[in-house]
Amino acid sequence: MIVVGSVRPGRIGLPIAEWVRSRVEGAGHDVDFVDLRELALPFLDEPHHPSKRDYQHAHTRAWSARVEAADALIFVTPEYNHSYSPALKNAIDYLYAEWQAKPVGFVSYGGMSGGSRGVTALELVLSSVGAVKVPTEVNLVAASKQLADGAFAADDRQNGGVDALIAQVVAYGEALRPLQAR
């Protein structure tokens, strides 16, 4: 699963996520592509704690099923004020058990840090719900300069980094599958 973490108009996360998707599919893997703007989850509106999995709303049950079906996740995330987007936090908070033993990788973007400070904040939240971060991450510094005709034009180093990230996410997914809450 690839999750596009920004919902802003004019976001560069979508073309970056499309680039990541092309690399994942090019490596022979299926992708559930989740654009949080299209998913359109309202602010967390479940009356019960997600650990109970007593979901009252169809949108939560659908989101739960998608995350549960995923072998692994790659989050394409911006950095907002040394953190990550509120839409991404909301999507994570909807669920609990579904994140258990899910390998997660990060492709981040932002100014001089390339989104790395947002990833640091995101790691804390995802580890608290049982997700497992893979060692490789890709931080894209000034990624907006690599947009051409609505597409992200990655260089060889970035392609190699994403390919290494994909390989790790897949390997961790296979190793952790017996521990996931399916």
Automatic annotation (TrEMBL):
SUPFAM superfamilies: Flavoproteins. GO terms for molecular function: FMN binding; oxidoreductase activity. Pfam families: FMN_red (PF03358). Residues 2-140 form the NADPH-dependent FMN reductase-like domain. It comes from the Bacteria. InterPro entries: Flavoprotein-like_sf, FMN_Rdtase-like_dom, NAD(P)H-dep_reductase. GO terms for cellular component: cytosol. This is Putative oxidoreductase. It comes from Microcella alkaliphila. The lineage of its organism: Bacteria, Bacillati, Actinomycetota, Actinomycetes, Micrococcales.
